[in-house]
């Protein structure tokens, strides 16, 4: 079913942290690709707010290079030039008046445009930037503010940041980005769940044995050691991306697919997450850090070498088992796992269904349950693993076979990247894929039950070699998925 698309109004995108890594790698290419796809057929300008004093020409070369690297389809060179002509770098060194005045001049030139203030800076600067926007009278009813994660590093700091932003912007002008929500397969989760009778009927503790959410990355911390060492895998990935995936899997059907209805349902899941205590944090969480390793004959640095420090207790791997204490999910374990420097990049969600009640083919063995595998990365596909008879005579021999739906094979055209979709949603004023403040706070409360108890019990990192599957590698390898028992094995084996 096609919905009527909301018209996009002319806009100015003002990117703070405008020559930073995220802006150059993700934001400009996303806007440009939407432009090439003719979705931005309105007047617009992009202002890159920089503190570094980078020259316009050098900056545009860098942006162009990044755009070209990210395009994997046929494009018109002229159109890229047209896009780059709309991008201007402005120097705003701190709270400097001259800088903000320059920005004001530009924005006042186009009073009917909506301003999208995109804050791609550390969140400690958000309050100061919003104060300045207010002081220089740059915000009106059409304005929006986009906030990149992490929003603080605790419940208290996240509340503080939010308070300073909400003095300037109302909640319906605030877009808290979690780019995982913009991924095609993640959105397909809602269609899979709420447009298919088959799955929805089995989507509860009567039928589901366990759920696994894995986001494995082959990269290390790259150039972001300074930031990463203060956050670690739990705050960098679990507090946002993995919890959002868990919410979409576990939430009740929303009244309609509209921002607040969807967010209300996700919030209920976050409220129902069982908090950790000193005992469960020891038995049901594992944290790890990568040491030197090797991949395809190449030496890979350890985390400490990557961040150029002699010691650090930051985790680059975390695995945990949690429960959602509500009617639908009573007693079903949710396993979350993420780590850097794993052998390959892959993310997937596995719904493990219970086995059939009784094996009519053999008294000796149990038939393993069906699995629904939702692969997010590197390829986007859905697999339903079900038992099939092996062809030929010789009685009933059976094995698990996957029915596969590969998005790339089934649908023509390219899938826009997460940032492209999210940027268009911001322009259209659709907040469905953005987090509300109360969701964020509920996520922090649960995450702090882990961080506080880690501190209390002085939980240490277990070292794992870069290029392996983390602390439990001896037990789980790439072919073997986590099962209900193996997390116990993983946890007990490494304690
Ligand atoms: C970011 C994290 O939010 O997500 C990074 O800060 C991580 O550490 C990245 O690498 C992963 O995103 P994706 O889309 O590559 O899985």
Task: Describe the model.
It contains 16 helices and 17 strands. It has 495 residues and is of the alpha/beta class. It has 2 domains: 11-176, Rossmann fold (3-Layer(aba) Sandwich); 181-415 and 434-494, Dihydrodipicolinate Reductase, domain 2, CATH 3.30.360.10. A hairpin with a 3-residue loop joins strand 14 and strand 15. Helix 6 (155-166) packs antiparallel against helix 15 and helix 9 crosses helix 10. The longest helix is centred in the middle third of the chain and has 26 residues, at 225-250. Mean pLDDT is 90; it is low at 474-481. The protein binds 6-O-phosphono-beta-D-glucopyranose. 6-O-phosphono-beta-D-glucopyranose binds next to loops.
CATH topology of the largest domain: Dihydrodipicolinate Reductase, domain 2
The biggest sheet amounts to: 9 strands, mixed
Bound small-molecule species:
6-O-phosphono-beta-D-glucopyranose
**Which CATH-level-2 architecture of the largest domain?**
2-Layer Sandwich
What is the CATH class designation of the largest domain? Alpha Beta
Total count of domains:
2
Q: Give the C-alpha Rg.
A: 24 Å
Helix content: 25-40%
* Average pLDDT rating: 90
- What is the total tally of β strands? 17
CATH superfamily of the largest domain: Dihydrodipicolinate Reductase, domain 2
Distance between the termini: 52 Å
In which order are the strands of the major sheet placed?
16-15-14-13-7-12-11-8-17
Estimated share of beta-strand residues: 15-25%
Tally the helices. 16
């Amino acid at each position: 079913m096609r919905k009527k698309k909301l018209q996009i109004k002319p806009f100015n995108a003002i990117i703070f942290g405008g020559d930073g890594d995220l802006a150059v790698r993700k934001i400009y290419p996303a806007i440009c690709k939407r432009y090439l796809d003719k979705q931005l057929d309105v007047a617009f300008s992009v202002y890159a707010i920089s503190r570094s004093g980078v020259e316009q020409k050098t900056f545009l070369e860098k942006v162009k290079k990044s755009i070209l690297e990210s395009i994997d389809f046929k494009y018109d060179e002229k159109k890229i030039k047209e896009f780059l002509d709309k991008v201007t770098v402005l120097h705003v060194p701190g709270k400097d008046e001259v800088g903000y005045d320059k920005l004001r001049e530009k924005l006042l030139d186009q009073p009917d445009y909506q301003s999208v203030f995109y804050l791609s800076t550390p969140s400690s600067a958000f309050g100061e930037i919003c104060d300045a926007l207010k002081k220089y009278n740059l915000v009106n009813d059409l304005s929006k503010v986009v906030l990149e994660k992490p929003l603080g590093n605790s419940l208290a700091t996240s509340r503080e940041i939010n308070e300073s932003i909400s003095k300037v912007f109302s909640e319906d002008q605030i877009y808290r980005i979690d780019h995982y929500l913009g991924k095609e397969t993640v959105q397909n989760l809602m269609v899979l769940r709420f447009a298919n009778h088959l799955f929805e009927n089995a989507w509860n503790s009567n039928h589901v044995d366990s759920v696994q959410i894995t986001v494995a990355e082959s990269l290390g911390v790259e150039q972001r050691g300074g930031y990463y060492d203060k956050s670690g895998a739990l705050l960098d990935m679990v507090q946002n991306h993995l919890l959002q995936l868990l919410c979409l899997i576990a939430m009740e059907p929303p009244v309609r697919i509209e921002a607040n209805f969807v967010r209300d349902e996700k919030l209920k899941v976050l409220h129902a997450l069982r908090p950790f205590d000193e005992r469960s944090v020891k038995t049901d969480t594992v944290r790890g850090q990568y040491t030197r390793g090797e991949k395809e004959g190449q030496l890979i640095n350890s985390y400490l070498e990557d961040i150029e420090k002699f010691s650090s207790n930051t985790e680059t791997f975390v695995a945990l088992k949690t429960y959602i204490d509500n009617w639908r999910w009573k007693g079903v374990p949710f396993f979350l796992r993420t780590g850097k420097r794993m052998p390959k990049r892959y993310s997937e969600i596995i719904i493990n269904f219970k086995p059939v009640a009784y094996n009519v083919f053999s008294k000796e063995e149990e038939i393993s349950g069906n699995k629904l595998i939702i692969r997010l990365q590197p390829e986007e596909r859905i697999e339903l693993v079900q038992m099939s008879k092996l062809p030929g005579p010789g009685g009933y021999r059976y094995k698990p076979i996957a029915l596969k739906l590969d998005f790339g094979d089934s649908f023509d055209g390219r899938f826009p990247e997460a940032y492209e979709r999210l940027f268009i949603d911001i322009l259209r004023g659709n907040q469905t894929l953005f987090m509300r403040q109360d969701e964020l706070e509920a996520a922090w409360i649960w995450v702090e039950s882990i961080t506080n108890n880690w501190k209390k019990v002085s939980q240490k990192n277990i070292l794992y070699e870069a290029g392996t599957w983390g602390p439990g590698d001896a037990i789980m390898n790439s072919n073997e998925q986590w099962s209900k028992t193996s997390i116990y094995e993983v946890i007990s084996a490494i304690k």
